[in-house]
Amino acid sequence: MTVKMIIDTDPGIDDAMAIAYAAADPNIEVIGLTTVFGNVYVEQGTRNALHLVEMLDLNCPVAEGAAKPLEIPLDPPSHQVHGAEGFGGLPAPTPSGKAISESAAEFLCRTCSENPGEVVICAIGPLTNLAHALRLDPHIAHTAGKVVIMGGSAEVGGNITQFAEANIFHDPHAAAEVFAADWPVVMVGLDVTHDIICTSQDFDKLKAYAPKTGGFIKAISSFYLDFYASVGLTEGCHLHDPAAVIAAAYPHHFQTRDMPLSVILDGERRGETQPAPGASTPLVSVCTGVDDDGVKARFMAAYRALS
Asked: How does strand 254-259 pair with strand 284-290?
């Protein structure tokens, strides 16, 4: 069965990997991209999303979303991880298309309302657009089919700080609102994404499989791999965002445990996601285990199918 998916994104190198994977997978229908600040400023993210739509021949709109968090100041983009323009060492792209007039929140609410129970929202950036959508139309909690987020961790700590994963850290208040809403949420966090690693040789294979798309991913991955090497992960890079897209369409690759979650909103532990036993908030389906070989094989196979 084909999964209708909106990808909420701050592209971003691994965002591009995730979107390219989704475009290649015949079981995923990407029906929209919504952009948010994070890895880059939102205007850059919208431009990058438009470039990806055109490069990948995706017949879907791009809606620009939040430029800043709900309550805290905007953190500077992660240029050391994703490059000044979001695509590693590549220059800024020049797409011909433009974003639609609807905001990301408006697009999310309308699309879910028109397709009740059918749309998976896969959020691979800060969760600000989802929080805005809940505020705009709380009924989206009942019309969205499922929300799958790349973010947080239950047990392994953070990656931007000792405690927090980056997407939650950049807007903890939005994450708290998303976790508190009465909709089905799957958290694909560092507990599992740290187990999925792609090497430089893997990216060489992607380029060989699909010279256009795989070649682009290979080109932007070199910057990403250099960053990972600089922080001690010399064997490759984590497939954070692609894991969330794969979890949305192929949940059997993941083991989950349902639990209420709390989010630390400020202080040195800002952005930390913690299991909250006994809390009255809805349960979140937290990914706690992964068939990392199966996920990686599925990621690679999508590019091979493009050849």
From this structure: antiparallel
CB 302, CB 25: distance < 8 Å: yes
Q: What is the CATH number of the domain that holds 53?
A: 3.90.245.10
d(C-alpha 67, C-alpha 116), whole Å: 28
Determine which one of 10, 25, 171, 191 is catalytic. 10
**Number of structural domains found in the chain:** 1
Strands 197-198 and 237-238 turn out to be antiparallel
Catalytic residue list contains 10: yes
Q: What is the mean pLDDT of residues 74-96?
A: 95
Question: For residue range 44-82, what is the model confidence (pLDDT) as tens digits?
Answer: 999 999 999 999 999 999 999 999 999 999 999 989 999
240 has catalytic annotation: yes
Give the pLDDT band (50/70/90) at residue 307.
low
Pick the catalytic residue from 51, 82, 170, 240.
Answer: 240
- Residue 97 CA from chain centroid, whole number: 22
Domain residues for 298? 3-304
Q: Do strands 119-123 and 28-35 pair parallel, antiparallel, or not at all (unpaired)?
A: unpaired
